[in-house]
């Protein structure tokens, strides 16, 4: 699969989500804190983010100013013909090594990235087979550009614009480690972080746009989806208890609220739609259901 949205300004649902495909996200303008896993990025125009989609992520924007971004979703399988060429550049290495990574593009680098995005949009607008082919080639060029940028030393010291966001970063890091603890509650967070419950709740909501336990529950549901995908034989009850739910009914209600179907139905649909990749012959690949 390959989807490209150029300079999108449309509304979006500010919820934490994940997906099985990879993502390239480019921030054109606006005010946005982007939470990806246990990292919070305060974005500036020219920031390009590589995302390994299974990581929980969500932007927190300021709705008083335009929020403009370009987004590419893709399955790495579409790149196989380019990766198998003689002397091919390992353009997927940044995704594989870093999982999620921000490039702060400025000056000439920013201009080059935006030029490639404009070129991709032009080919997309053609709406024909040649345009689709050249769109993919332009995307491969973008990935070469990204790879080139990632060759630079990755010793950048991340800076937080405020102590508040640094504190929330610490909260998220703790939640990433303890999200499946069935004894997790605000009292324990208060004790471990040495901050009042009311202050923790207030700043977390301000920075991320969700409450602490909305984040925790979304994280648990996301992990449940991953477990169902990777371990199709695992029972719903086992997944529920493994992720910190004391009652199966609570897990089922939350899962349905976030996903739109019960865990049992989700598992059945996943089984029906699961795509397996098989290698046949010498270097030839087919997809079968």
UniProtKB/TrEMBL annotation:
Taxonomic superkingdom: Bacteria
Keyword DNA-binding: yes
Residue intervals of the HTH araC/xylS-type domain: 169-269
Keywords noted in UniProt: DNA-binding, Transcription, Transcription regulation
Keyword Repressor on entry: no
InterPro entries: AraC-bd (IPR003313), Homeodomain-like_sf (IPR009057), HTH-like (IPR037923), HTH_AraC (IPR018060), RmlC-like_jellyroll (IPR014710), Tscrpt_reg_AraC-type_HTH (IPR020449)
A GO MF term: DNA-binding transcription factor activity
Any coiled-coil regions, as ranges: none
PANTHER family given in the database record: ARAC-FAMILY TRANSCRIPTIONAL REGULATOR, HTH-TYPE TRANSCRIPTIONAL ACTIVATOR RHAS
Protein name per UniProt: AraC family transcriptional regulator
């Amino acid at each position: 699969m390959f989807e490209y949205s150029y300079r999108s300004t449309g509304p979006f649902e500010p919820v934490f989500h994940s997906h099985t495909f990879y993502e390239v996200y480019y921030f054109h303008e606006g005010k946005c804190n982007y939470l990806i896993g246990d990292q919070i990025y305060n974005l500036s125009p020219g920031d390009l983010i590589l995302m390994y989609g299974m990581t929980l992520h969500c932007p927190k924007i300021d709705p008083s100013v335009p929020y403009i971004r370009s987004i590419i979703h893709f399955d790495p399988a579409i790149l196989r013909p380019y990766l198998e060429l003689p002397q091919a550049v390992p353009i997927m290495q940044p995704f594989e090594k870093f999982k999620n990574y921000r490039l702060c593009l400025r000056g000439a680098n920013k201009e080059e990235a935006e030029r490639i995005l404009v070129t991709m949009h032009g080919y997309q607008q053609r709406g024909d087979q040649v345009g689709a082919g050249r769109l993919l080639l332009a995307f491969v060029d973008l990935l070469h550009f990204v790879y080139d940028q990632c060759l630079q030393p990755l010793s950048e010291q991340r800076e937080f614009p405020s102590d508040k966001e640094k504190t929330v970063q610490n909260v998220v890091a703790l939640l990433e480690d303890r999200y499946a603890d069935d004894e997790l509650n605000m009292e324990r967070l208060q004790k471990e972080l040495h901050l009042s419950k009311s202050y923790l709740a207030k700043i977390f909501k301000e920075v991320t746009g969700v409450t602490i336990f909305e984040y925790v529950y979304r994280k648990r549901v996301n992990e449940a989806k991953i477990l169902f995908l990777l371990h199709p034989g695992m029972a719903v009850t086992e997944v529920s208890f493994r992720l910190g739910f004391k009652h199966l009914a609570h897990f089922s209600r939350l899962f349905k609220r976030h996903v739109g179907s019960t865990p049992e139905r989700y598992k059945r649909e996943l089984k029906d739609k699961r795509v397996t990749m098989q290698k046949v012959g010498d270097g030839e690949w087919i997809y079968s259901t």
